[in-house]
Amino acid sequence: MTHAERHAPPGQQALGAVFSDEEREIYALYRRPGRATFSVDAVALLVIDVTYGLLGPRLPTRQAVDQKRTACGQPGWDAVGRIGPVRARARALGWPVMYTRGASEQHLGGATIGAAEANEDDAIVAELAPAPGELVIEKARASASYGTPLVSYLVGKGVRMQLILLHAEVGEPVR
After folding, report:
1. Where are the beta strands (DSSP E) in 13-158?
2. Residues near 144 by beta carbon (within 8 Å), at least 6 away in sequence
3. 32 DSSP 8-state letter
4. The pLDDT of residue 115 is above 70
5. In angstroms, rounded to a whole number, what is the distance separating the alpha carbons of residues 56 and 115?
6. What is the pTM of this model?
7. What pLDDT does residue 117 have?
8. Are residues 133 and 153 in the same domain?
9. Rg of the chain over CA atoms, in angstroms?
């Protein structure tokens, strides 16, 4: 551990435990000289669309897609195992932890059409179930911010940076 790492604020020390040396070195390549760093107190964790419908069966991707068109299969489930420790660290740092999930055609971001039934595909996987008090954003579109209360929530919490975790979705560009 370098002198700077030993004397960094506790939150930044904790980030070192989340990211590998290689990831921190790559991140440093993009840092602008002389630019202020962010306070880790102004960070939130957003876990995007880690649902049964988008992960699908625990099979190689091509086989998973044969069973469920939206599935990414085993690579998505592998990502769940990597997201868990990052989420635990975020909680330990007191960061807001938020999740997104899709809304069915009957349940569009907080509004329902008739008596909407729960859709198992839109449920967040049990391994990453939100804790009481953690925000779950239901979204009608691919964007977590379009037509949702996300921005208002972040502003209200004083968040200036989001750490976004997701799995690779089949056929979907990551925005």
Report:
1. 43-48, 97-102, 107-108, 111-112, 135-139
2. 46, 48, 100, 137, 150
3. P
4. no
5. 26
6. 0.70
7. 55
8. yes
9. 18
